[in-house]
Specification:
Distance between the termini: 49 Å
CATH class: Alpha Beta
Number of domains: 1
Structural class: alpha/beta
CATH superfamily: NAD(P)-binding Rossmann-like Domain
Strand content: 5-15%
Low-confidence stretches: none
CATH topology: Rossmann fold
Helix content: 40-55%
Radius of gyration: 18 Å
Mean pLDDT: 93
Largest sheet: 7 strands, parallel
Number of strands: 7
Length: 264
């Protein structure tokens, strides 16, 4: 096995955008470090993904663990440091999709309960704040340095309203704010930070949103290509964005949606 071109750390690696990103970067000769949280029933698909990546003749290490836990993050990074050595991590991708989908104030005739404080706090912590903590620890350990790229997966839900989407919408808006602040603080170190706003994509996370079928239908009708964005569309773009020539592009929310957003 040849030495990897660079190491890529994907948070939320087992499905959707994360799995496609792992495949795309592995095809580029990158070593893949994946963090995910799956029950036993989901491990068949995870193990199949790992085997697929290893067949590309790149080093692969997945961690089935809680990426939002301070203790588990520290333990994972201990192992990561041993694996990557002086090479460090070249690309960090934050693609964690675990949050509460409940209304702030349910309709009067609804049996649905309002979202609780702990659920809002959890959603913000996992889907937004954890980006800050992973970056802090990678930088402080010397694992993310000059030439490093950080990408966070956001969505148009940061700016729009969907039924029961309030907690996740708030987390996505916070995530984009974190990206701007990290970009400001890390550019002197030669590290860029950007958010990627994919178009509506048929992922496990989208299917959990009430009314997701209608969301998909409207997005496909609006998109100039007449179809939804696919995870591979986003992964291919991010591979290109991770190259050396994007060193001056930072603090942005970049739409990767085939023109979906600007079409009425």
């Amino acid at each position: 096995m040849a030495a990897p071109r660079r190491w890529v750390l994907v948070l939320g690696a087992s499905s959707g955008f994360g799995a496609s990103l792992c495949r795309a970067f592995a095809a580029e000769g990158c070593g893949i470090l994946g963090v995910h949280l799956d029950r036993r029933s989901g491990m068949v698909a995870v193990n199949a993904l790992v085997s697929e990546l290893e067949a590309m003749d790149v080093p692969v290490r997945f961690f089935n663990d809680n990426a939002a836990s301070d203790e588990r993050r520290a333990a994972i990074l201990d192992t990561v440091a041993e694996l990557v050595g002086d090479d460090g991590v070249g690309v960090l991708v934050h693609s964690l999709a675990f949050g509460t989908l409940r209304p702030f104030v349910p309709a009067e005739d609804s049996a649905t309960r309002a979202v609780a404080r702990r659920q809002i706090d959890m959603t913000l912590d996992v889907m937004a704040n954890s980006l800050v903590y992973w970056v802090q620890d990678l930088v402080s350990r010397g694992l993310l340095g000059r030439g490093g790229r950080v990408y966070a997966m956001t969505s148009s839900g940061s700016q729009r309203v969907f039924s029961s989407y309030g907690p996740v919408s708030a987390a996505k808006a916070a995530l984009e704010s974190h990206v701007r602040q990290l970009a400001f603080e890390l550019l002197p170190r030669g590290i860029t930070v950007n958010a990627i706003m994919a178009g509506v994509t048929d992922t496990p996370a989208l299917r959990k949103i009430p009314g997701s079928e209608r969301i998909k239908q409207l997005a496909a009708e609006r998109n100039p290509a007449g179809r939804l964005t696919e995870p591979d569309d986003v992964a291919a773009c991010m591979v290109e964005l991770s190259r050396a020539g994007t060193y001056w592009m930072t603090g942005n929310t970049i739409r990767v949606d085939g023109g979906e957003d600007f079409c009425a």
